[in-house]
Specification:
The chain is α/β, with parallel strands linked by helices. It has helices at residues 22-35, 45-53, 110-114, 166-169, 223-227, 232-241, 259-270, 283-292, 300-303, 307-314, 362-371, 393-398, 413-425, 444-453, and strands spanning 12-13, 66-72, 82-88, 95-104, 127-129, 134-141, 153-156, 184-187, 193-196, 206-210, 214-216, 251-255, 275-279, 296-298, 339-342, 377-380, 402-405, 437-439, 459-462. The strands form 3 sheets. Strands 1, 4, 6, 7, 10, 11, 18 and 19 form an 8-stranded mixed beta sheet that branches. Strands 14-13-12-15-16-17 form a 6-stranded parallel beta sheet, sandwiched between helices. Bound molecules: zinc ion (2 copies).
Length: 464
Protein backbone atom coordinates (compact mmCIF):
# COMPACT_ATOMS: atom_id res chain seq x y z
CA UNK A 1 0.00 0.00 0.00
CA UNK A 2 2.33 2.73 1.17
CA UNK A 3 5.44 3.17 -0.87
CA UNK A 4 8.52 5.29 -0.55
CA UNK A 5 10.92 6.25 -3.26
CA UNK A 6 12.78 9.26 -4.54
CA UNK A 7 12.44 8.21 -8.17
CA UNK A 8 11.23 10.85 -10.58
CA UNK A 9 10.17 11.01 -14.15
CA UNK A 10 13.34 11.56 -16.14
CA UNK A 11 13.45 15.08 -17.49
CA UNK A 12 13.49 15.38 -21.22
CA UNK A 13 14.23 18.42 -23.33
CA UNK A 14 13.68 18.27 -27.05
CA UNK A 15 15.65 20.91 -28.89
CA UNK A 16 14.30 22.99 -31.74
CA UNK A 17 15.88 22.61 -35.16
CA UNK A 18 18.96 24.82 -35.33
CA UNK A 19 17.71 26.64 -38.41
CA UNK A 20 15.24 28.76 -36.50
CA UNK A 21 16.11 32.41 -36.59
CA UNK A 22 12.66 33.99 -36.60
CA UNK A 23 12.41 33.57 -32.85
CA UNK A 24 15.53 35.63 -32.30
CA UNK A 25 14.11 38.33 -34.54
CA UNK A 26 10.90 38.35 -32.53
CA UNK A 27 12.78 38.55 -29.27
CA UNK A 28 14.82 41.47 -30.54
CA UNK A 29 11.71 43.38 -31.48
CA UNK A 30 10.07 42.40 -28.19
CA UNK A 31 12.94 43.91 -26.24
CA UNK A 32 12.62 47.05 -28.29
CA UNK A 33 8.88 47.19 -27.65
CA UNK A 34 9.12 46.52 -23.94
CA UNK A 35 11.72 49.23 -23.56
CA UNK A 36 9.83 51.92 -25.42
CA UNK A 37 6.30 52.16 -24.15
CA UNK A 38 4.17 54.37 -26.32
CA UNK A 39 4.07 55.19 -29.97
CA UNK A 40 7.44 53.61 -30.59
CA UNK A 41 6.11 50.24 -29.52
CA UNK A 42 5.59 49.08 -33.05
CA UNK A 43 8.01 46.41 -34.02
CA UNK A 44 8.63 47.02 -37.67
CA UNK A 45 7.99 49.52 -40.40
CA UNK A 46 5.54 47.10 -41.98
CA UNK A 47 3.68 46.76 -38.72
CA UNK A 48 3.71 50.50 -38.26
CA UNK A 49 2.20 50.96 -41.68
CA UNK A 50 -0.54 48.48 -40.91
CA UNK A 51 -1.22 49.92 -37.49
CA UNK A 52 -1.55 53.42 -38.88
CA UNK A 53 -4.24 52.23 -41.25
CA UNK A 54 -6.05 50.35 -38.49
CA UNK A 55 -9.28 51.71 -37.09
CA UNK A 56 -8.69 50.14 -33.70
CA UNK A 57 -7.37 53.24 -31.99
CA UNK A 58 -4.72 51.23 -30.19
CA UNK A 59 -1.45 53.03 -29.68
CA UNK A 60 0.46 49.75 -29.65
CA UNK A 61 -0.92 47.82 -32.55
CA UNK A 62 1.33 45.38 -34.34
CA UNK A 63 -0.87 44.38 -37.25
CA UNK A 64 1.04 42.83 -40.09
CA UNK A 65 3.59 41.14 -37.91
CA UNK A 66 4.50 37.60 -38.87
CA UNK A 67 4.59 34.89 -36.25
CA UNK A 68 4.62 31.12 -36.13
CA UNK A 69 1.94 28.99 -34.52
CA UNK A 70 0.82 25.39 -34.31
CA UNK A 71 -2.27 25.53 -36.48
CA UNK A 72 -5.18 23.18 -37.10
CA UNK A 73 -7.05 23.77 -40.35
CA UNK A 74 -9.16 20.69 -39.78
CA UNK A 75 -9.68 18.15 -37.05
CA UNK A 76 -10.50 14.49 -37.14
CA UNK A 77 -9.03 11.10 -36.43
CA UNK A 78 -5.23 11.26 -36.54
CA UNK A 79 -5.00 14.92 -37.63
CA UNK A 80 -2.39 16.78 -35.58
CA UNK A 81 -1.95 20.13 -37.36
CA UNK A 82 1.41 21.76 -37.88
CA UNK A 83 3.52 24.92 -37.68
CA UNK A 84 2.54 27.76 -40.00
CA UNK A 85 3.57 31.38 -40.38
CA UNK A 86 0.65 33.70 -39.73
CA UNK A 87 0.03 37.41 -40.13
CA UNK A 88 -1.30 39.26 -37.11
CA UNK A 89 -4.46 41.32 -37.61
CA UNK A 90 -5.17 44.63 -35.82
CA UNK A 91 -6.26 44.30 -32.20
CA UNK A 92 -9.04 46.26 -30.60
CA UNK A 93 -10.99 46.69 -27.38
CA UNK A 94 -9.63 44.60 -24.53
CA UNK A 95 -7.26 42.48 -26.62
CA UNK A 96 -3.66 42.01 -25.53
CA UNK A 97 -0.79 40.77 -27.70
CA UNK A 98 1.66 38.66 -25.72
CA UNK A 99 5.00 37.25 -26.84
CA UNK A 100 4.66 33.69 -25.63
CA UNK A 101 7.44 32.30 -23.48
CA UNK A 102 5.85 28.97 -22.57
CA UNK A 103 2.55 27.14 -22.80
CA UNK A 104 1.57 23.89 -21.19
CA UNK A 105 0.12 20.85 -22.96
CA UNK A 106 -3.14 20.01 -21.23
CA UNK A 107 -4.77 16.59 -21.28
CA UNK A 108 -8.10 18.24 -22.01
CA UNK A 109 -6.71 19.21 -25.42
CA UNK A 110 -5.29 15.86 -26.52
CA UNK A 111 -8.44 14.75 -28.30
CA UNK A 112 -8.37 17.88 -30.48
CA UNK A 113 -4.60 18.03 -30.81
CA UNK A 114 -4.07 14.35 -31.65
CA UNK A 115 -7.28 13.80 -33.54
CA UNK A 116 -9.65 11.59 -31.61
CA UNK A 117 -12.48 10.00 -33.49
CA UNK A 118 -15.44 12.35 -33.83
CA UNK A 119 -13.54 15.56 -33.02
CA UNK A 120 -14.53 18.48 -35.22
CA UNK A 121 -13.47 22.08 -35.66
CA UNK A 122 -15.16 24.75 -33.56
CA UNK A 123 -14.82 27.16 -36.51
CA UNK A 124 -15.35 25.14 -39.72
CA UNK A 125 -13.66 26.71 -42.70
CA UNK A 126 -11.20 28.58 -40.50
CA UNK A 127 -8.13 27.61 -38.55
CA UNK A 128 -7.44 27.45 -34.83
CA UNK A 129 -4.45 27.65 -32.50
CA UNK A 130 -4.86 25.35 -29.50
CA UNK A 131 -3.36 25.96 -26.07
CA UNK A 132 -5.59 27.52 -23.44
CA UNK A 133 -3.02 29.35 -21.38
CA UNK A 134 0.57 30.38 -21.05
CA UNK A 135 3.06 32.94 -19.86
CA UNK A 136 4.71 35.73 -21.79
CA UNK A 137 5.50 39.41 -22.21
CA UNK A 138 2.89 41.97 -23.26
CA UNK A 139 3.82 43.61 -26.54
CA UNK A 140 0.68 45.56 -27.41
CA UNK A 141 -2.65 46.39 -25.81
CA UNK A 142 -6.05 47.41 -27.18
CA UNK A 143 -7.45 50.87 -26.41
CA UNK A 144 -9.69 49.66 -23.57
CA UNK A 145 -7.04 47.62 -21.73
CA UNK A 146 -6.32 48.80 -18.19
CA UNK A 147 -5.16 45.69 -16.39
CA UNK A 148 -1.80 45.18 -18.05
CA UNK A 149 0.67 47.28 -20.00
CA UNK A 150 3.38 46.75 -22.57
CA UNK A 151 6.38 45.07 -20.99
CA UNK A 152 4.44 43.25 -18.27
CA UNK A 153 5.03 39.58 -17.78
CA UNK A 154 1.62 37.96 -17.64
CA UNK A 155 0.06 34.61 -16.99
CA UNK A 156 -2.85 33.93 -19.30
CA UNK A 157 -5.27 31.65 -17.49
CA UNK A 158 -7.73 29.12 -18.83
CA UNK A 159 -10.60 30.89 -17.07
CA UNK A 160 -11.00 34.68 -17.10
CA UNK A 161 -11.92 36.92 -14.20
CA UNK A 162 -13.61 40.01 -15.64
CA UNK A 163 -14.61 41.41 -12.21
CA UNK A 164 -17.84 42.71 -13.75
CA UNK A 165 -20.14 39.81 -14.59
CA UNK A 166 -22.77 38.30 -12.32
CA UNK A 167 -20.63 35.34 -11.29
CA UNK A 168 -17.56 37.46 -10.63
CA UNK A 169 -19.65 39.78 -8.46
CA UNK A 170 -21.08 36.91 -6.44
CA UNK A 171 -17.74 35.30 -5.74
CA UNK A 172 -17.58 32.66 -8.46
CA UNK A 173 -15.07 34.15 -10.84
CA UNK A 174 -14.04 30.63 -11.78
CA UNK A 175 -17.32 30.61 -13.72
CA UNK A 176 -16.82 34.10 -15.16
CA UNK A 177 -19.12 35.03 -18.03
CA UNK A 178 -16.53 37.43 -19.42
CA UNK A 179 -15.82 35.36 -22.47
CA UNK A 180 -16.73 36.23 -26.02
CA UNK A 181 -17.10 34.28 -29.24
CA UNK A 182 -13.79 33.39 -30.93
CA UNK A 183 -12.15 36.48 -32.41
CA UNK A 184 -10.20 36.27 -35.64
CA UNK A 185 -6.67 37.32 -34.71
CA UNK A 186 -4.56 36.36 -37.71
CA UNK A 187 -4.56 35.01 -41.21
CA UNK A 188 -2.67 32.16 -42.82
CA UNK A 189 -0.47 32.79 -45.85
CA UNK A 190 -3.42 31.84 -48.08
CA UNK A 191 -5.90 34.09 -46.33
CA UNK A 192 -7.66 31.68 -43.93
CA UNK A 193 -8.96 33.30 -40.74
CA UNK A 194 -7.33 32.04 -37.52
CA UNK A 195 -8.73 32.10 -33.99
CA UNK A 196 -7.13 31.17 -30.70
CA UNK A 197 -8.69 28.43 -28.56
CA UNK A 198 -10.73 30.18 -25.84
CA UNK A 199 -9.40 33.43 -27.32
CA UNK A 200 -5.96 32.47 -26.06
CA UNK A 201 -4.13 30.19 -28.52
CA UNK A 202 -1.08 29.50 -26.39
CA UNK A 203 0.84 27.28 -28.80
CA UNK A 204 2.11 30.20 -30.84
CA UNK A 205 4.89 32.77 -30.73
CA UNK A 206 2.23 35.40 -30.12
CA UNK A 207 -0.92 34.99 -28.07
CA UNK A 208 -3.81 37.41 -28.52
CA UNK A 209 -5.87 37.18 -25.34
CA UNK A 210 -8.50 39.32 -23.68
CA UNK A 211 -7.28 41.28 -20.69
CA UNK A 212 -9.73 39.49 -18.40
CA UNK A 213 -7.65 36.33 -18.97
CA UNK A 214 -4.37 38.07 -18.08
CA UNK A 215 -2.72 38.73 -14.74
CA UNK A 216 0.60 40.53 -14.51
CA UNK A 217 3.09 38.72 -12.32
CA UNK A 218 6.21 40.10 -10.81
CA UNK A 219 8.39 37.07 -11.25
CA UNK A 220 11.56 36.13 -13.04
CA UNK A 221 10.99 32.43 -12.50
CA UNK A 222 11.48 30.06 -15.46
CA UNK A 223 8.50 30.41 -17.79
CA UNK A 224 7.89 26.65 -18.07
CA UNK A 225 7.14 26.55 -14.33
CA UNK A 226 4.92 29.63 -14.36
CA UNK A 227 3.04 28.24 -17.36
CA UNK A 228 1.72 25.40 -15.21
CA UNK A 229 -0.30 27.89 -13.22
CA UNK A 230 -2.32 28.80 -16.31
CA UNK A 231 -4.33 25.60 -16.00
CA UNK A 232 -3.27 22.38 -14.25
CA UNK A 233 -1.35 23.67 -11.23
CA UNK A 234 -3.72 26.59 -10.81
CA UNK A 235 -6.51 24.02 -10.70
CA UNK A 236 -4.71 21.79 -8.22
CA UNK A 237 -3.86 24.66 -5.89
CA UNK A 238 -7.37 26.03 -6.26
CA UNK A 239 -8.83 22.70 -5.18
CA UNK A 240 -7.08 23.04 -1.83
CA UNK A 241 -7.15 26.82 -1.30
CA UNK A 242 -10.38 28.33 -2.64
CA UNK A 243 -13.87 26.82 -2.48
CA UNK A 244 -13.05 24.52 0.43
CA UNK A 245 -9.67 25.53 1.86
CA UNK A 246 -7.86 22.65 3.54
CA UNK A 247 -8.08 22.93 7.32
CA UNK A 248 -4.81 22.53 9.25
CA UNK A 249 -4.58 19.10 10.81
CA UNK A 250 -7.26 17.64 8.54
CA UNK A 251 -7.30 14.59 6.30
CA UNK A 252 -7.43 15.03 2.54
CA UNK A 253 -7.95 12.23 0.02
CA UNK A 254 -7.02 12.86 -3.61
CA UNK A 255 -8.07 10.62 -6.50
CA UNK A 256 -5.59 11.05 -9.32
CA UNK A 257 -1.93 12.07 -9.18
CA UNK A 258 -1.58 13.66 -12.58
CA UNK A 259 -0.63 17.32 -13.03
CA UNK A 260 -3.69 18.54 -11.12
CA UNK A 261 -3.61 15.90 -8.38
CA UNK A 262 0.11 16.37 -7.74
CA UNK A 263 -0.44 20.12 -7.47
CA UNK A 264 -3.29 19.46 -5.06
CA UNK A 265 -1.02 17.25 -2.95
CA UNK A 266 1.36 20.19 -2.61
CA UNK A 267 -1.51 22.56 -1.88
CA UNK A 268 -2.84 20.28 0.85
CA UNK A 269 0.63 20.06 2.38
CA UNK A 270 1.05 23.84 2.26
CA UNK A 271 -2.33 24.33 3.92
CA UNK A 272 -1.33 22.05 6.79
CA UNK A 273 -3.15 18.79 6.16
CA UNK A 274 -2.12 16.11 8.64
CA UNK A 275 -2.80 13.26 6.24
CA UNK A 276 -2.81 13.32 2.44
CA UNK A 277 -4.05 10.06 0.95
CA UNK A 278 -3.59 9.59 -2.79
CA UNK A 279 -5.17 7.08 -5.17
CA UNK A 280 -3.30 6.63 -8.46
CA UNK A 281 -2.74 3.61 -10.74
CA UNK A 282 0.62 4.77 -12.19
CA UNK A 283 3.46 3.78 -9.87
CA UNK A 284 5.86 6.60 -10.74
CA UNK A 285 3.11 9.13 -10.07
CA UNK A 286 2.45 7.56 -6.67
CA UNK A 287 6.13 7.99 -5.94
CA UNK A 288 5.98 11.64 -6.95
CA UNK A 289 2.95 12.10 -4.71
CA UNK A 290 4.98 10.83 -1.77
CA UNK A 291 7.80 13.19 -2.73
CA UNK A 292 5.37 16.12 -2.72
CA UNK A 293 3.87 15.37 0.67
CA UNK A 294 1.39 12.50 0.41
CA UNK A 295 1.35 10.40 3.57
CA UNK A 296 -0.22 7.30 2.00
CA UNK A 297 -0.72 6.14 -1.57
CA UNK A 298 -3.01 3.47 -2.95
CA UNK A 299 -3.03 1.63 -6.24
CA UNK A 300 -6.72 1.29 -7.14
CA UNK A 301 -5.93 -1.75 -9.29
CA UNK A 302 -4.59 -3.54 -6.22
CA UNK A 303 -7.22 -2.44 -3.71
CA UNK A 304 -10.19 -3.10 -5.98
CA UNK A 305 -13.50 -3.11 -4.12
CA UNK A 306 -11.68 -2.60 -0.81
CA UNK A 307 -10.30 0.81 -1.75
CA UNK A 308 -12.84 2.99 0.01
CA UNK A 309 -12.74 0.88 3.20
CA UNK A 310 -8.94 0.93 3.18
CA UNK A 311 -8.92 4.72 3.06
CA UNK A 312 -11.59 4.96 5.74
CA UNK A 313 -9.47 2.76 7.98
CA UNK A 314 -6.64 5.31 7.77
CA UNK A 315 -9.05 8.04 8.85
CA UNK A 316 -10.06 6.57 12.18
CA UNK A 317 -9.23 8.44 15.36
CA UNK A 318 -7.13 7.51 18.34
CA UNK A 319 -9.93 7.17 20.88
CA UNK A 320 -13.13 5.15 21.02
CA UNK A 321 -14.66 7.43 23.64
CA UNK A 322 -17.56 9.44 22.28
CA UNK A 323 -16.86 12.28 24.73
CA UNK A 324 -13.12 12.63 24.25
CA UNK A 325 -13.33 14.72 21.10
CA UNK A 326 -11.66 14.28 17.78
CA UNK A 327 -12.24 11.45 15.39
CA UNK A 328 -13.90 8.26 16.57
CA UNK A 329 -12.25 4.90 16.07
CA UNK A 330 -13.32 2.70 13.21
CA UNK A 331 -17.03 2.04 13.58
CA UNK A 332 -17.81 5.56 14.75
CA UNK A 333 -19.70 8.25 12.91
CA UNK A 334 -16.98 10.13 11.07
CA UNK A 335 -15.38 7.56 8.87
CA UNK A 336 -13.58 9.37 6.15
CA UNK A 337 -11.51 12.36 5.10
CA UNK A 338 -12.42 15.98 5.77
CA UNK A 339 -11.97 16.72 2.09
CA UNK A 340 -12.13 14.42 -0.92
CA UNK A 341 -10.74 15.62 -4.26
CA UNK A 342 -11.37 13.99 -7.62
CA UNK A 343 -8.78 14.84 -10.30
CA UNK A 344 -9.02 11.84 -12.61
CA UNK A 345 -11.33 12.45 -15.56
CA UNK A 346 -11.80 10.07 -18.46
CA UNK A 347 -9.16 8.61 -20.79
CA UNK A 348 -9.22 10.05 -24.31
CA UNK A 349 -6.66 7.50 -25.52
CA UNK A 350 -5.25 4.40 -23.75
CA UNK A 351 -2.24 5.35 -21.59
CA UNK A 352 1.15 3.73 -22.19
CA UNK A 353 1.72 3.30 -18.46
CA UNK A 354 -0.56 1.55 -15.95
CA UNK A 355 -4.22 1.71 -16.93
CA UNK A 356 -6.66 2.64 -14.18
CA UNK A 357 -9.55 0.37 -13.21
CA UNK A 358 -12.10 2.39 -15.19
CA UNK A 359 -10.96 4.39 -18.25
CA UNK A 360 -14.37 6.09 -18.37
CA UNK A 361 -13.56 7.89 -15.12
CA UNK A 362 -16.96 7.06 -13.62
CA UNK A 363 -15.67 4.64 -10.97
CA UNK A 364 -13.34 7.22 -9.32
CA UNK A 365 -16.25 9.68 -9.15
CA UNK A 366 -18.40 7.04 -7.51
CA UNK A 367 -15.65 6.04 -5.08
CA UNK A 368 -14.92 9.66 -4.18
CA UNK A 369 -18.60 10.24 -3.42
CA UNK A 370 -18.84 7.03 -1.38
CA UNK A 371 -15.72 7.96 0.58
CA UNK A 372 -16.91 11.44 1.47
CA UNK A 373 -18.54 11.24 4.93
CA UNK A 374 -21.39 13.34 6.26
CA UNK A 375 -20.32 16.91 6.76
CA UNK A 376 -17.24 16.69 4.58
CA UNK A 377 -16.64 18.30 1.20
CA UNK A 378 -16.21 16.56 -2.13
CA UNK A 379 -14.48 18.58 -4.84
CA UNK A 380 -14.52 17.33 -8.41
CA UNK A 381 -12.67 18.77 -11.40
CA UNK A 382 -12.03 15.88 -13.79
CA UNK A 383 -13.48 16.15 -17.28
CA UNK A 384 -14.29 13.81 -20.12
CA UNK A 385 -15.99 11.12 -18.05
CA UNK A 386 -17.97 8.81 -20.29
CA UNK A 387 -21.22 7.83 -18.59
CA UNK A 388 -23.44 8.75 -15.67
CA UNK A 389 -22.89 8.51 -11.94
CA UNK A 390 -25.73 7.05 -9.91
CA UNK A 391 -26.48 7.49 -6.22
CA UNK A 392 -28.97 5.92 -3.83
CA UNK A 393 -31.66 8.61 -3.80
CA UNK A 394 -32.00 8.82 -0.03
CA UNK A 395 -28.27 9.12 0.55
CA UNK A 396 -27.84 11.63 -2.23
CA UNK A 397 -30.61 13.70 -0.75
CA UNK A 398 -29.83 13.39 2.91
CA UNK A 399 -26.27 12.25 3.56
CA UNK A 400 -24.83 15.75 4.00
CA UNK A 401 -22.00 15.32 1.53
CA UNK A 402 -21.09 18.77 0.22
CA UNK A 403 -20.32 18.41 -3.46
CA UNK A 404 -18.46 21.37 -4.97
CA UNK A 405 -17.78 21.40 -8.67
CA UNK A 406 -15.59 24.09 -10.15
CA UNK A 407 -13.74 25.36 -13.15
CA UNK A 408 -10.00 26.00 -12.68
CA UNK A 409 -10.33 24.45 -9.21
CA UNK A 410 -12.22 27.53 -8.02
CA UNK A 411 -9.32 29.82 -8.89
CA UNK A 412 -10.05 33.51 -9.34
CA UNK A 413 -7.37 34.80 -11.66
CA UNK A 414 -6.81 38.21 -10.10
CA UNK A 415 -7.18 37.10 -6.51
CA UNK A 416 -5.25 33.85 -6.64
CA UNK A 417 -2.63 33.95 -9.38
CA UNK A 418 -0.30 36.36 -7.56
CA UNK A 419 -0.30 34.20 -4.45
CA UNK A 420 0.30 31.03 -6.47
CA UNK A 421 3.30 32.74 -8.06
CA UNK A 422 4.49 33.74 -4.59
CA UNK A 423 4.41 30.09 -3.53
CA UNK A 424 6.73 29.22 -6.41
CA UNK A 425 8.96 32.21 -5.72
CA UNK A 426 9.26 31.23 -2.06
CA UNK A 427 10.17 27.66 -2.90
CA UNK A 428 7.03 26.34 -1.26
CA UNK A 429 5.40 25.01 -4.41
CA UNK A 430 7.72 22.76 -6.42
CA UNK A 431 6.77 23.52 -10.01
CA UNK A 432 10.19 22.54 -11.30
CA UNK A 433 9.64 18.85 -10.54
CA UNK A 434 6.28 18.99 -12.26
CA UNK A 435 7.83 20.12 -15.55
CA UNK A 436 8.97 16.71 -16.74
CA UNK A 437 9.43 17.46 -20.44
CA UNK A 438 9.85 20.53 -22.63
CA UNK A 439 9.47 20.94 -26.38
CA UNK A 440 9.92 23.68 -28.96
CA UNK A 441 6.89 24.85 -30.93
CA UNK A 442 7.64 22.20 -33.55
CA UNK A 443 7.15 19.54 -30.86
CA UNK A 444 3.63 20.60 -29.92
CA UNK A 445 2.02 17.33 -31.08
CA UNK A 446 4.81 15.29 -29.47
CA UNK A 447 4.24 17.07 -26.17
CA UNK A 448 0.57 16.24 -26.29
CA UNK A 449 1.34 12.65 -27.28
CA UNK A 450 3.45 12.22 -24.13
CA UNK A 451 0.68 13.86 -22.14
CA UNK A 452 -1.83 11.45 -23.64
CA UNK A 453 0.43 8.45 -23.05
CA UNK A 454 0.92 9.57 -19.39
CA UNK A 455 4.65 9.02 -19.88
CA UNK A 456 5.27 12.55 -18.59
CA UNK A 457 3.58 14.62 -15.93
CA UNK A 458 3.68 17.95 -17.76
CA UNK A 459 4.86 18.68 -21.26
CA UNK A 460 5.55 22.37 -21.75
CA UNK A 461 6.12 24.15 -25.05
CA UNK A 462 8.99 26.59 -24.49
CA UNK A 463 9.64 29.19 -27.18
CA UNK A 464 13.32 29.47 -27.98
ZN1 LIG B 1 -6.05 22.80 -19.26
ZN1 LIG C 1 -16.68 37.73 -14.84
Amino acid sequence: MKETSDKKFPKTKIEAPSTISRRDALKQSAIAVAGTVGAAAVASSAAAQSASSSTSGSSNNMAGRKFRAWVHREMGEGITGGVEELTLLPIDGRQVVIRTEASQCCYSNVSMMLGAQGVTMANPGGAIILGHGGVGIVEAVGPQVRRVKVGDRVIVGVTPECSECYNCLRGRADRCYGTVDPLVIAQTSDGVDVVGDLNIGGHAELMVALEQSCVAVNSTHPPAELALLSCVSGTGLGMTMTLSPVTPGSIVAIFGAGPIGLSAVQGARLMGAAQIIVVEPISVRRELALQFGATSVFDPNVEGDQLVDQIRYLCQGESDSFYSGGRPRFGGRHLGPDLVIEAVGGDRFPPKLEVGPDPTGILPLQQAWDLCPAGSDLLTCGIGQDGNVSFPGGRWSNSSKNHLSSQFGGTHMKRDMPRYVSLIEAGLFDAESLVTSTYPLEGTADGHQATSDRTTVNSVIVMS
